[in-house]
Amino acid sequence: MLGEHLAQALTPLNVLLALGGVAAGTIIGSIPGLTATMAVAVLVPLTFTMDPASALILLGAIYTGAIYGGAYSAILLNTPGTPSAIGTTFDGYPMAKCGDGNLAVTVACLGSVVGGLVGAFFLLTLSPPLSEVALAFGPVEYFWLAIFGLSLIAALSEGALAKGLMGASLGLLLSCVGVAEISADVRLTFGSQTMIGGIEVVSALIGLYCIPVLIDLVATPDRHLKVESEQRGFRLSEAIPIMWREKINVVRSSVIGTVVGILPGAGGSVAGLVAYAEARRAARQGQKYGTGEPGGVIATESANNATVGGGLIPTLVLGIPGTPPDAIILGALLVQGVRTGPQLFESQGSIVYTFIYGLFLATLLMLPVGLLVGRYAYKTVVTLPKALLVPSVAFMTIIGSYAIRNSVSDVIIMISLGAVGWVLARFGIAASPIVLGIILGPIAEQGFVQAWTIGSATGDLAGMFFGRPISLAIILFTLFTLFLPLLQARIRARRMPNAE
Amino acid sequence: MQSDAPTTEGRDVGGLVAAIVLVLIGAIALYDTTGYADMDSVVFPRTVAIALILSSLGYIVYAILRRPPAEAHNTGSTLRRVSLVAVMLVSVAAMPWIGFVASGIVAFLCLILVAMHDPWTWQKAIVYPLVGIAIVVGFFALFRYGLLVPLPKGRLF
């Protein structure tokens, strides 16, 4: 029976669709501003006339490719192509600056393939029990999850925790700009029409990461990235041993990606950040995350690609989309006459299993496609004259941030935030905590206000915030992440005199 | 995630100024929350504004007592930096008037000038603008006709 579904997934047409979908998704995802959601949304009408399984394979392949594609601009331009690649910039760009950009792209590709396969494996084998995890998460758990994500600031702000907290608080404040989601109050716009729509996350991301890079690029005649004297190909012989050394990191990050992907609304950005924080926390002696450590790229990329399979678990079993692209896939499923729910795997198993095997296929095809596209992207960015690279990237940031909501205001905010971000970075306040605040702000606020309302209504606020087992587990993890570096430093300091 | 800027000896005056500006931003945000109708809208921004003020004040005290090293000043052309941001902003502001393609081409050509550090040759003077026009028109076609994004049309022409 399963062999039959596998054979259906491997028909020449489906293989071609998976290949084309991965390639299209990878290229779209690599352009700053064009997210996986947009890639799937734009191409979904193409699938309406197709056979249901083929249509879903194409959509799954586009989604998988787009999530991976975000790594290129993260590594080569320090700008995450999609929000889920934020963590990739932390180590990917420093690697590229040292002349290891092609190694970073290869490592990102391998990590994405493994993460994607793990997510698809959980989707195939453990969908019903895992979807219960999504149901167990209430508003207060989402609030604590956002706080857990914010604890990454402490792990990454070595020596400048106060500046990290200042940046994160500013980001959280920026996330409040515009019309409040819960009560529709107009906040922090100061009468400006430009600000009334709020600060769009992807526009902010492009502005805060990309504009400062462009500002510094035009200022000096120095080359953007180090050019290698000799061609070193895909550098698979270096990447595979790195992957083997980071095997625990890969598995842990993939599982984190799957679990976070299951939670509706959390998505690849949260998954990537949480996986990065955990990889950094578990770093071995001598590993310096944030300065070009391949483990950081592996953690983020394997986690964000694992959210593809993870997000499809509640989508298929409960009809609750785990991520925004899943919502579009859910719509496509309904158009195709596929009714999601606990009985789906039995009632329409043929379509669903063919789709899942197609997802495996698309993930595997990402390896050759990703390596090839990555190699040419790297070569292009490294060799393009600065006088063409800067206007091309600047133009892409404008069109990319405009296309998200068809709003000129978003572009103005993007450029302004970029300039402010550059100034703040000169004073030691990095872009990442601000971005983290902007991304996690709405999740934290919604969870906090809803939990506050429920707690107030039941007369048990403390119990609501601190009395639920999953909340307690997340709080403990957060405290662990926050205080472990301090504890390790103390232990090291105590051991030092003995060693002498 | 740490700042790109290397550090130098001396008091972190830039950091102190940034912290003072952020305290002011926090205070303005706190004041803004007094005008909201619903308590649900107030609680989160107010908490965050207080966190911003406290963390900034914390850094001010730390910078005064511990004297952390200052961030180094950047080398390079300030004029080019300001020009880049100005060209991008002006081109976006002009978009509703002269349309996406015209503003995109003008911005691209201006940014070539801003980013050009090598000596000009006849070949570069011909090829670079042509490449720019091809990129703008190519992306316009992709977004307008491929991805069906309604890019702004000009009011003047």
TrEMBL record, chain A:
<feature type="transmembrane region" description="Helical">
    <location>
        <begin position="56"/>
        <end position="75"/>
    </location>
</feature>
<feature type="transmembrane region" description="Helical">
    <location>
        <begin position="384"/>
        <end position="404"/>
    </location>
</feature>
<dbReference type="InterPro" id="IPR002823">
    <property type="entry name" value="DUF112_TM"/>
</dbReference>
<keyword id="KW-0472">Membrane</keyword>
<keyword id="KW-1133">Transmembrane helix</keyword>
<protein>
    <submittedName>
        <fullName>Tricarboxylic transport membrane protein</fullName>
    </submittedName>
</protein>
<feature type="transmembrane region" description="Helical">
    <location>
        <begin position="411"/>
        <end position="444"/>
    </location>
</feature>
<feature type="transmembrane region" description="Helical">
    <location>
        <begin position="255"/>
        <end position="277"/>
    </location>
</feature>
<feature type="transmembrane region" description="Helical">
    <location>
        <begin position="160"/>
        <end position="182"/>
    </location>
</feature>
<feature type="transmembrane region" description="Helical">
    <location>
        <begin position="103"/>
        <end position="126"/>
    </location>
</feature>
<feature type="transmembrane region" description="Helical">
    <location>
        <begin position="351"/>
        <end position="378"/>
    </location>
</feature>
<feature type="transmembrane region" description="Helical">
    <location>
        <begin position="464"/>
        <end position="487"/>
    </location>
</feature>
<feature type="transmembrane region" description="Helical">
    <location>
        <begin position="133"/>
        <end position="154"/>
    </location>
</feature>
<dbReference type="Pfam" id="PF01970">
    <property type="entry name" value="TctA"/>
</dbReference>
<keyword id="KW-0812">Transmembrane</keyword>
<feature type="transmembrane region" description="Helical">
    <location>
        <begin position="194"/>
        <end position="215"/>
    </location>
</feature>
<feature type="transmembrane region" description="Helical">
    <location>
        <begin position="15"/>
        <end position="44"/>
    </location>
</feature>
<feature type="domain" description="DUF112">
    <location>
        <begin position="16"/>
        <end position="436"/>
    </location>
</feature>
Automatic annotation (TrEMBL), chain B:
<feature type="transmembrane region" description="Helical">
    <location>
        <begin position="43"/>
        <end position="65"/>
    </location>
</feature>
<keyword id="KW-1133">Transmembrane helix</keyword>
<protein>
    <submittedName>
        <fullName>Glucose uptake protein GlcU</fullName>
    </submittedName>
</protein>
<feature type="transmembrane region" description="Helical">
    <location>
        <begin position="86"/>
        <end position="114"/>
    </location>
</feature>
<feature type="transmembrane region" description="Helical">
    <location>
        <begin position="126"/>
        <end position="147"/>
    </location>
</feature>
<dbReference type="InterPro" id="IPR009936">
    <property type="entry name" value="DUF1468"/>
</dbReference>
<dbReference type="Pfam" id="PF07331">
    <property type="entry name" value="TctB"/>
</dbReference>
<keyword id="KW-0812">Transmembrane</keyword>
<feature type="transmembrane region" description="Helical">
    <location>
        <begin position="12"/>
        <end position="31"/>
    </location>
</feature>
<keyword id="KW-0472">Membrane</keyword>
<feature type="domain" description="DUF1468">
    <location>
        <begin position="17"/>
        <end position="152"/>
    </location>
</feature>
